[in-house]
Amino acid sequence: MGIPSAVLASFAIAQCICGRAPLATPGDPCDPEEYPDPCALGDPNMECMGNGRCECMDGYADDAGGCKVEVGGDCFETECVSNADCIGIYPPFCECQEGFIEDVSTGLCKTPVEGECTVAEECVSHAACIDSECVCNRGFQDYGNGLCEVMTFDWPWQYTFPPFFTIQPNAATREKQLDAWRHLVLDYCRHQKIYLLDVNEALSSPLFQNRELNRKLGFEGVSVVLDGLQKTGNIEWIDKQKRRCYVYWKTPEEWGKLIYKWVQDKGLTNSVCTLFELAQGDDTAGEEFHGLHNDVLIKALKTLEARRQAEIIAEEGVKFF
């Protein structure tokens, strides 16, 4: 009596597996036409893709050379990625442990920006471990969610020049330096749509601190820069302690003219608009003043009132003339 063909096939596969050393891991080259799938032999949650590489299936992430359930995935039968726990019952799912966040580009649980680290691999994507802290690489920025996202802001050449972060004693050099800082602050705030600047928060932001150079403009230097911006009418202090200020890359008068031009173009003279409609409404989406801080918006509308082109109604609406 002969050996069943199914047994022979299993034996043949077993021989192939024994002869394949080591088994495939994510990223290894493979032949999509090969059977059985060489990637699946290495990990049942991995397959050979059309690009000729072994990749984790949807819902799984490459974690230390194996495919594990990514954050939010069903972990009923498969282990979660590192730094995640399988919680819940129907169905159970993977959730990052305290102190870690989902790195959306990898599906892994990583240390967020400003979290403690020993090596860069512990941090979210596009971050380095500097002085035991996760810091976004140049060209990326944390927008408040602990991740490093692409930053398209074009830093001036001075930003990579260490002396730029020390107020220079020579009068002529100092004047050029402060002018460069003035343009940088206004360009940065315009790009980030910062209408109200908190000095304490700004001190640790990329605006005044270049972590790659390990250089920052100190409190006294920032005060000198902001005082210069006040003299040119580009900032207005909110409190006597000079902790918070409005930033005017466009003055209230310029904002007012921009808004009134839109009103005329839309045929809205002799009409009433709410402040919300002006700053957040769908009709102004795409306009430069869309998203304008409410305080700055009111200041802009008051310049139109002074020219008898508008009347503010209880600081909630405005009628244009």
3D architecture notes:
The chain is of the alpha+beta class. It folds into four domains: 22-90, no CATH class; 111-150, no CATH class; 157-247, Arc Repressor Mutant, subunit A (Orthogonal Bundle), CATH 1.10.10.570; 252-320, Orthogonal Bundle (Arc Repressor Mutant, subunit A), CATH 1.10.10. The protein has eight helices and 20 strands. The strands form nine sheets. It has a three-stranded antiparallel sheet. Helix 6 packs across helix 8 (294-306). It is extended. The model is unreliable at 1-21 (pLDDT under 50).
Strand content: 15-25%
* Proper CATH architecture of the largest domain: Orthogonal Bundle
Low-confidence stretches: 1-21
Largest sheet: 3 strands, antiparallel
What is the C-alpha radius of gyration, as a whole number of Å? Answer: 29 Å
Q: Keywords for this structure?
A:
single chain, 321 residues, alpha+beta, Arc Repressor Mutant, subunit A, 4 domains, 3-stranded antiparallel beta sheet, disordered N terminus, WH-like_DNA-bd_sf, signal, protein homodimerization activity, transport, ESCRT-II_cplx_Vps25-sub_N
Compact description:
This protein has eight helices and 20 strands.
Per-chain topology:
Blueprint: H1 5-19, H2 38-42, E1 46-48, E2 54-56, E3 60-63, E4 66-69, E5 84-87, E6 93-96, E7 101-103, E8 108-110, E9 127-130, E10 133-136, E11 140-141, E12 149-150, H3 171-192, E13 196-198, H4 199-203, E14 209-210, E15 215-216, H5 219-231, E16 235-237, E17 244-247, H6 252-265, E18 272-274, H7 275-280, H8 294-306, E19 310-313, E20 317-320
